[in-house]
Here is the input.
Amino acid sequence: MSSELSTHGSKTSAPYVWRSVLILIATSIVLMIAIFVGARYGLLFAVGLGFGIVLEGLGFGFAGPWRAMILKRNPAGVLAQLLSIGLVATLTLPLLETHGSELSGARGSIGWAMVAGAFIFGVAMQVVLGCGSGTLVNAGSGNPIGLLALPFFAIGSFLGAYHVIWWTDLGSLPVIVLAGWSGLFLTIVMLAIVAAIFYYFANPQYRKIPKNYLIAAAIIAILAVLNLIIAGQPWGVVYGLGLWVAKMAVASGADLSGSVFFSAPINSERLKESILTDYTSLTNIGLMVGAYFVASWRIKGFSQKIPRLPLRAWSATILAGLVMGYAARLAFGCNVGAYFSGISTGSLHGWAWFAAAFCGSYYGVKLRPLLGLEAKS
Amino acid sequence: MTRRITGLLALSLILGVILFDLSTAQVNPYRAPPIIALGSGVASVGGFCGALPD
Here is the structure.
């Protein structure tokens, strides 16, 4: 994801005409969803568009900043993530306390499969250099690695959801939630401690958070709060991807009644409904389309050549995509649903996810060049 | 080959998923929930990454 937004030159000869068309198309899609599916769904898609535009336009993300911390001891992106999570927590934890019947947090239990899933997700996300949201944004902006990983991520998510109950039965703690004002206080203190640790270990030349990261952190926080207020649930990614494949499997004649997960009323109901009424699907689509629009907005947004990578790199991308999807289901979400939304809505599993996935990322960063994924065209 | 091709492929992928979906499920705006969950008095019932069956 590049942060450069070019404002000169031309997309042919009239960039402003092209950009006006992009704005018109985006507005039209939002309105069409609002009119033909429902106002809430139109708003959610607009929130998803916002996520995609900010993540791609301001170069904000999750996998890249973790890589920067591991390789260069550059904590800027991670600090911005923690800031954003803190902002969201400040608004959402009191709301969840007062409107618990209408809003729900990203709650999950810490368990063997959850921690292992997060660790493996961390490895795989560094191999493809894109997390849950990052894979969608990368694909939307024409990154071939993201595009290839995405369908396999979705298949992995479906398979992980199919088996998730077997994995969680291996053992887990009860769901632990830091709720209310005391929960908010604890969450902010823990975020500050983690930020201080990253700051302490940082290379001194990288101890300042760039302005684009600060702006992105604030806007992402606003969008995440809007997601909760509009949908009644936090921002997530993985559920929607698995649902797409599950719907295709059912349409192909597959019987999912053998899965405890898909035979549960909430999920079997979702299989019958349109994905345009599924909140995570809507924001996922918005993320991709938003990233595509940003790349189109830039004068040379799509001019980058497809890299020449060895076969093992493309094979690794497919495998990593599959593993990411499967592992994210066991971990109760990816960097968005578990880490960002989990911590910001007070679930302790978000913290366990963060620790495990960061450890996994360390090995993923080491693995990436061995798989030929850093070759240049 | 540039990213223009892969960007268009990504967009086509999403469009294909939506068209497939619309061929298998109906949408009805009159069954849509209140525009905003907060203050609606209606419980959240959407699927989520961390939500497991009871």
